[in-house]
# Entry
Amino acid sequence: MDERHFTTLSAEKYITSSCAISKGVVLKDGERLFENDGANAAAFMVSVYQHFQVSYPKFYKMDNLGKLGLLTSEILLKNSFNKEQYQPEKVGLVLANKNSSLDDDIKYWDSVKDIASPSLFVYTLPNIVIGEICIRNGFKGEHAFYIQQNFDADFIANQVNYLVDNDILDACICGWADFLEQEYKAVFFLVEKKTNGSSVVFSSGNMNNVFNK
Amino acid sequence: MSGQSVYIIADNVFAPLGKTTAENFANLKQNLSGVKQHQHSTQAYFAALFDDDSFADDPNYTKFESLAIVSINEALNQSGLDLSDEKTVLIISSTKGNVSLLETGKNTPELQQRIALSASAKLIAEHFGFVNEPVIISNACVSGVMAIIAGMRLIKSGQYENAVIVGADVISEFVLSGFRSFQALSPEVCRPFDKSRDGLNLGEGAGTIILSSNQEYSGNIKVLGGGISNDANHISGPSRTGKELAYAIEQSLKDANLSAGDIDFISAHGTATVYNDEMEANAISLSGLESVPLNSLKGYYGHTLGAAGLIESIISLQSMKEDIFFPTPGFEEQGVTRPVNVSAQPVRLSAKNILKTASGFGGCNAAVVFGK
# Structure
């Protein structure tokens, strides 16, 4: 009963932008913007960076998960997000994945056999990708990184609803970012309390529609 | 937000210093520490590590999973919760889980599956018969505090009635070599907030807190509020100002309907790295808490990573019950720009509300308030 009561009080929230990157394809709001199915996973990340003319040299220092998340957030926000409308503390992230930072863990552990690399070690935490996106955009709000066997849209929706309904955040990037060797998939949603031309209501069902596309 | 009150109904600390909260507390009263000198190849280092025979040797579980299981088990026995009940959720906090399997196993898809935290969560949940999908948080060194906040909210919002929250991490060569490569380890026992602090000690352990909205426990200590923020400054170095941790502290106070003057004690993160403690002291001052007595328990437990938020909260909750707060081993002379009230001696104090803080890689900060 509490849950129902809680829902009726909640602010209307919309997915004002979405971006999905997987299997050599970049989709924004469902539209195919870029494709390069010949490249290996790491080279594909660089091709996306170049195609979308992202200008952020720190990109090259990041691990694969950091690159994937950074690119997904760049394309998600470009022409879709007006940062000036928000206080930095009111923008946050709720992300999840299956393999944590294992892609980088394996690379770091390989480095230990020679000389342990601090620049690989720093990426052996899944939430570093959140830190990278926060640094890039100046977002200072609440965030969390969850590990899930499969994308749990209901859980993510509940988390975001709590944060927005309780006035902790005004805008939130949520979704999935997973990278392990040649397999990668990121699907991000921008959630705001307003509509735009392409927005849909924020719900687990609408997230799953994009995620499973 | 308002909503259900969230009571702490049981807890366990399973660490090198003791296998129950009571055993840990008794050893702390004797001023014993789990941090000892160890040898790895040619290098000596200080850390709080389990003896090899601390765990039952069950081939079905890794050391990480065994650690989580023994801690949950002891706390559950106190609580008498019925886990077949859909109103109970399991929350697991860890930074590195089973990563040590990489050190001995061949990198195969099977090994990758086994390392995934969701694989451990499934085994742990099945061991006890939890019926809901476990929640897993892996958010660097704030994971434990975040897990307590997540549990509080899942109950406040009415999604669950009970939350069993466990944090666990083990120290293997992967973690040890990493912190060493960062030159983050002190060559001695760590000295939080001290002028001569020169790095942290690692520690392994687990902590479990069980939360409930059941009014039967209305006399118990409550989780009152939480706040989380990001520095947006650097992935491996803390904020220069401490403003962002201060924001998380303010959010936690607001959530708890309290002001700075209501906080009687602070359990700080206090890792004893130069930059963490400086940032944390700044944040505490910015929040108007500079005169509130605080400690760092890192000199007793080392930095237990994903377990730290739980272990240090549980010891501080026990301190609230027994009116005795522990000192900060290694602290002698104030070594931060904006002085804070670091306890060098045990503090006899009847505390109504306390604050627990944490910060970590990725620029994350978290704060949680507990109150009677």
User: Anything to note?
Assistant: Chain B is about 30% helix and 20% strand. The first strand of chain B starts at residue 7 and ends at 14.
